[in-house]
Amino acid sequence: MARRKASVPGEPNGPVAAAVGSRPPTSRADYVHTVLHKEILDGTLQPGTPVLQDEIAGRLGVSITPVREALRRLESTGLVTYQAHYGATVTELSPDALTELYQLRAAIEGLAANLAANHITGDDLTELRAIHAEMRSAQQAHDTTALAEGSRRFHATIAHIGGPALLARHLAGLWDSYPVPHTASVWQFEDVAARCVAEHEKLIEALENGDGAAAQQLMEDHIAGVPEDRETHDLSGPPC
Questions:
Q1: How far is CA 8 from CA 94, 138, 152, 177, 231, in A?
Q2: pLDDT (tens digit, 9 = 90+) per residue, 123-146?
Q3: pTM given for the model
Q4: Rg of the chain taking only CA atoms, in angstroms
Q5: Interior CA angle at 157 toward 126 and 25, to 5°?
Q6: 177: part of which helix (H) or strand (E)?
Q7: Please, what sign has the CA dihedral across residues 162, 164, 166, 167?
């Protein structure tokens, strides 16, 4: 039986044709939620930015009620934080929280890569190589957005191969709760892009060889290098 294609966290798959080119909205709250989620992801709403209910309602042509409902949903997934006497803001992680996030991702994705080495099929390898080839083309074109999106697909695919029952869902939850605006992506820097694309190639080789231990170590090291990249290039926010 063919393995179901991995979904890619961060890609819009809800309603709102005007906002994301998808089907019409099923409710005003869905509409507001989808627009705000997209704006957080693409960097229109940066971490720490106040989310003013009246402004959102006026801009989107809805009442306050669906705005409040959408903000509650965004708060439940960690995208928005409420502060007393200040209201809602786009969540901004502390340095300690960022460190924990990197460590959690490394643990989840390292284990997923180890397990993937024992379950990967020829079709899976073909899919990973196709994503890798697209990323190489994006690297040559200096297309930051395509690189970031390709990286998500690459990592999501490995997680889905190795841990479709639990690990892939946990990773998707992290990505959905802490999306990275494209403007804050480390993929915009040529040195990082070159190194990460090369590391992806080594990961494919380890998976093809069925070497779970090597795949796990490569994945953990791959993710562990991102905090240093962000510090070197003076970026804030979670890793891509």
A1: 26, 18, 6, 13, 26
A2: 999 999 999 999 999 999 999 989
A3: 0.77
A4: 19
A5: 120
A6: helix 167-177
A7: positive
